[in-house]
Amino acid sequence: MTMKRIAFAITLTGLFYCIVIDQGHPQTQGKSESTIELSYYKKADMTKTAVAIVKVRRDSKFVPAKNAKVVFYVMHENVQRLLKSVNTNNKGKAVIVLQKDLPLEEDHSFSIVAKIENDSMYENAEEYIHYKDANLTLHLNPHDTDRIVTARVTEVGNDGKEIPVKGVELKFYVQRMFGIMPAIEANTISTDEKGEATLVYPKNIPGDSAGGLTVVAKIEDNEQFGNLENKAVTSWGTVLEAEKDPYPRSLWEPSAPLPLILSITLMFGGVWCSYFFIFFHLRKIKKGENILL
Amino acid sequence: MVNETLNLPAGQAGLKNGIEILREDCLRPLQKWGRSTLIWIGFLLLVIGWGLYCYIHQLRNGLGVTAMRDYVSWGLYISTFVFFIGISHSGTLVSAILRISKQEWRRPITRSAELLTFVSLLFGGILPIIDLGRPDRLANIVIFGRVQSPLVWDVISICTYLVGSTTFLFLPMIPDMALCRDRLTVCDSRFKKFRKWLYTKMALGWKGTKSQWHTLELTMTTMTIVIIPVAVSVHTVVSYIFAMTLRPGWDSTVFGPYFVTGALYSGSAGVILGMAAFRKLYHLEKYITLKHFDLMGRIQLALTLIYAYLNLNEYWIPAYKMATAEGRLLTDLFYGSYSKAFWTCQFGTVMLPIIFLAIPKLRKPLMISITCIIIVAGAWVKRYLIVVPTLLHPFMPIQEVPESWSSYFPNYVEFSVTAACLAGIFLIITLFSKLFPMIAVWEVEDGLKIDYDKQAAIYLRTKREEEEAKILEDRLKTGSETIQQPA
Question: Model's pTM, two decimal places?
Answer without folding.
Answer: 0.72
